[in-house]
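Board notes, transcribed. Complex of a protein with S-adenosylmethionine.
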Amino acid sequence: MELKRLLIARFPEIVPTRLPSGFDRVGDIAVVGITPELASLEREIGACILALHHTIRVVAKRDGEYGGEYRTLPLRVISGEERLTTVHRENSVTLHLDLAQVYFSVRSAHERARIAALVQPGERVAVLCSGVGPFPLIIGRHSRPREVIGIEKNPVAHQYAQHNLRANRSINNVCFLEGDARGVLPNLNRQFDRILIVLPHGGENLLPCALDALRPGGTLHFYDMQAKGCSSTTQDKVEAACREKGRSMEPVQVTICGHCGPTVHRVCLDAVIDATE
Ligand SMILES: C[S@@+](CC[C@H](N)C(=O)[O-])C[C@H]1O[C@@H](n2cnc3c(N)ncnc32)[C@H](O)[C@@H]1O
């Protein structure tokens, strides 16, 4: 609200609803959305953010949507230092990252804490699509798993994940592997108690390999995009994959863990595969 008030005072001629009311803070970078008609004012808007928050060193404008093979977000620095590398702290974990080259969203912080709280002592956990490592590291920090393996195909994100493992020295039950999860996971020849598929666009392509690696009674966390008010499509995807593999699923819950535009939710379906009871 402080930012909104400052911008309204600075640009009285602009309809207030068109001005940004906030930003995502990743380390010392502010990521802000600015509507196209305010493009000529973006440097001044960036300067207002820097003036208001002394620990922010970079203001970057969203220049599009998450996309591409590695789900990166197009960003452009509009004020402050000319860089998109930073160090972010979340759920008592330190994460080094480069927003120009990897996916990272601060909006999943609560979801990561939710999953970490579900992990039981002694579990083997696989995180498919682990990015710079937030899910594995936060699980490793807050739960007592036997092991957590993160698999990521963006080589830059994987390098950051390994760096982040070294940066969080007391976490000793996590490892990261580089490559396409469809190739890496089967080669581990291991059964997991819990598998996360953190790829809300196209994650269904990873369901077959995840189901092969999940022990009977194990838990799947499947992230997906779902039209608001339409609760069945995500479950349909997991059910179809289970049918193909001759397995059954017991949905436990669907958690809404974000928004993607006004009509689409980011959801996580938690399901037990081949539940015995
Ligand atoms: C939505 S991001 C999630 C990253 C991370 N889990 C997080 O929460 O910050 C999806 C990630 O999946 C990776 N990815 C996409 N397809 C993959 C695949 N087949 N195998 C492994 N990683 C993949 C992308 O490079 C990207 O880093």
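The CA atoms of residues 94 and 134 lie 9 Å apart. The mean pLDDT is 95.
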